[in-house]
Amino acid sequence: MVSITKQMGCPKLTYRHEEKPTFLKVWKNPKTTSEKVGLLDYGARMYDASLARFTTVDPMADEPHNLSMSPYNYCVNNPILYLDPDGMDWYSYTQDGVTYTHWQKGSASVVMVGDKMYANQGATYTQDLGDGASMTYTQNEVTSMKFSNLSNNDWVTQAYTDKNGKTKFGNCKTACDKMMGKAGTTSTRSGEFLVADANDNGVVTSSSGNSTKGINYLNETLVGGKPVLVGVDYKLEQVNNLKPSGDGMTDHFIVIGGMEVKLNKGKVTSTTYQFFDPRTQHKKYGTSTDNVLKVNNNLLKGSYLKGNKNYTVTSIRKTQ
């Protein structure tokens, strides 16, 4: 499951894979601080982090749906399921290139907040959290989280042109290493997670005992803002990475750079991983949003370009 809370102004995401892995991400407090009084300014009211209390009542406390609660409550006393980004019941106002948001009950085309006119943005709003992370709300409930740790300019092809002008294909692992380098990271085989078991032909048959740990590591690293290099199986017979020097399964390497987690009332409904593939000379194919993986029977499975190549992740290497 996923739970998202805001403690002392910090959105917090806790993710549990279908088995046992967990990861945690805490963003820096986006709210301004009044150094003179030591309070956090949430626009609608001030928050005293030392007391874990707001100093004034919620301006929407007299709304009918709030009358049964303390006027000092936050997120109707249920911060596991709900967030209240500025202390009030999705409108936006832009000034000097900065967009301010406001959530309140109702469907008016515009609302006045102080002396500023905020325009209705509908029932959904996506908040940019920085560092490639974003959070999408439907009303005041978080319905998706995205993490993107590679830009299209980070993609590298394994294709090259020889001296005769012909297109050849080099080493996929080398191309993936270059992608990782462009993102400011490297990968290491030391401590890698072999997340699948294979038959004598090197074809994946089932998840391994390390699968849950590997997927947990993948989630944690993506949320932490870094891509992950992984090996995949797609051939009917192993011809590379033969044992004992290889793992006997991996046919190809790709880089997982992003993840989207969809939620319903705080619970995960789906998790999708987006990857860059060096196997093509065309950037639009190598970075296509159709290049995705999902967990199926504790295996990471997916395809390049909607089935052009069907992949099963065999190994997850650690990012440094």
Structural account:
- The protein is mainly β.
- The strands form six sheets. The protein has a six-stranded antiparallel barrel. It has a four-stranded antiparallel β-sheet with strand order 4-5-6-7, with no helix packed on it.
- The longest helix is centred in the last third of the chain and has 13 residues, at 211-223.
- It has helices spanning 172-182, 211-223, 283-286, and strands spanning 2-7, 10-16, 22-26, 32-34, 39-41, 46-48, 53-54, 91-95, 98-102, 110-113, 116-120, 124-130, 133-138, 141-148, 159-161, 167-169, 187-194, 196-198, 204-207, 228-233, 252-264, 267-276, 292-296, 299-304, 309-319.
- The chain contains three helices and 25 strands.
